[in-house]
From TrEMBL:
It comes from the Bacteria. The keyword Oxidoreductase does not apply. Belongs to the AIR synthase family. Signal peptide: none annotated. SUPFAM superfamilies: PurM C-terminal domain-like (SSF56042), PurM N-terminal domain-like (SSF55326). Pathway: Purine metabolism; IMP biosynthesis via de novo pathway; 5-amino-1-(5-phospho-D-ribosyl)imidazole from N(2)-formyl-N(1)-(5-phospho-D-ribosyl)glycinamide: step 2/2. Pfam families: AIRS, AIRS_C. Its EC number is 6.3.3.1. One of its GO terms (molecular function) is phosphoribosylformylglycinamidine cyclo-ligase activity. This is Phosphoribosylformylglycinamidine cyclo-ligase.
Length: 331
């Protein structure tokens, strides 16, 4: 008799994975969650808002997963998955409410899958977002054995009148950059082409560990700032680096003038550049040490930087806004 297991899908391993995953997801539940994992859908009750707007975002980890496979370390990349989603919706002032994940593989290993969800759970805790559901798909013959793909989806909320859309940005405004934790989760196809020995050390640390540093989640920092200060625009520095992402906060023709010497560029980016990548391409691919950018009134800049640093993040005045539609100008 032919069985599903003989076709490559181990249902029992799936049951084991779900049991382990539930323990991690349960840690993220808050008062808005109405049902437990295992139902056909996640349910979330909206808190009290006057004119709420739901804000959604979806993303994956990308080829950074290849580094995790090589290092056989699965418990941090889930943080990247959450970060890529929640940091994006945060740009419009949205508070993340809940998150769902999708994990696909060729052959399911319950422990590895549970480690991936542990990372997702950790990311949700950092973002104060509930992990209310997901899907694990075992697809033999489609994915290589031992490899996984991971994607996620988040939903957040913001009062309509408090949506940040860049409409208030004007010439003379200041750009504040908040430090990244490293490469985050973009540019890894280039990284993997250039760096093949993950055991090689940079400043006493294995490159593999440096490359796996999870993406910083900016939710708590930024939401706390929004309670005290007017933020005119925000940008999450992901794929496309400075050149593509900073202009996404504008609603009119402006130029973001960035002073390259105003912030610290981490050693990993200098190392990548030493392998043959020119500076302009670096700023068009990587975050270069700045993971999140705020646009604020000049008179509030120093106070906001001080507030960010009180919350444990380095921040820098990295540039300003000028009239003219040149996008980004690096000096």
């Amino acid at each position: 008799m032919a069985t599903y297991k003989e076709a490559g899908v181990n249902i029992e391993e799936g049951y084991s994975a779900v049991k382990l995953m539930k323990e991690h997801a349960a840690k993220t539940f808050n008062s808005g969650v109405l049902n437990n994992l295992g139902s056909f859908a996640g349910m979330y009750e909206l808190p009290n808002y006057k004119n709420p707007v739901l804000v959604s975002g979806t993303d994956g980890i990308g080829t950074k997963l290849k580094i995790a496979f090589q290092m056989e370390k699965y418990d941090t990349v889930g943080i990247d998955c959450v970060a890529m989603c929640v940091n994006d919706i945060l740009c419009h002032g949205a508070k993340p409410l809940f998150f769902l994940d999708y994990i696909a593989c060729g052959k399911l290993n319950a422990k590895n899958a549970a480690d991936l969800v542990k990372g997702i759970s950790d990311g949700c805790l950092q973002a104060e977002s509930a992990l209310i559901g997901g899907e694990t798909a075992e697809m033999p013959g489609f994915y290589k054995e031992g490899e996984y793909d991971v994607a996620g989806f988040c939903v957040g909320i913001v009062e309509k009148e408090e949506i940040i859309d860049g409409s208030d940005i004007s010439a003379g405004d200041v750009l504040i950059g908040i430090e990244s934790s490293g490469i985050h989760s973009n540019g890894y196809s280039l990284v993997r082409k250039l760096i093949t020995n993950l055991d090689e050390e940079l400043n006493g640390e294995k490159l593999g560990n440096i490359l796996l540093a999870p993406t910083k989640i900016y939710v708590k920092t930024v939401l706390n700032l929004l309670k005290k200060y007017k933020i005119k625009g925000m940008a999450h520095i992901t794929g496309g680096g400075f050149y593509e992402n900073i202009p996404r906060m504008f609603k009119a023709d402006f130029t973001a003038v960035i002073n390259k010497g105003s912030f610290e560029v981490p050693a990993i980016f200098k190392y990548i550049m030493s392998l043959g990548v020119d500076e302009e391409h670096m700023y068009n691919t990587f975050n270069m040490g700045i993971g999140y950018v705020l646009c604020v009134d000049k008179e509030n800049s120093r106070e906001i930087i001080n507030e960010i640093e009180k919350m444990g993040n380095k921040a820098y005045e990295i540039g300003h806004i000028e009239a003219g539609g040149k996008g980004v100008c690096l000096k």
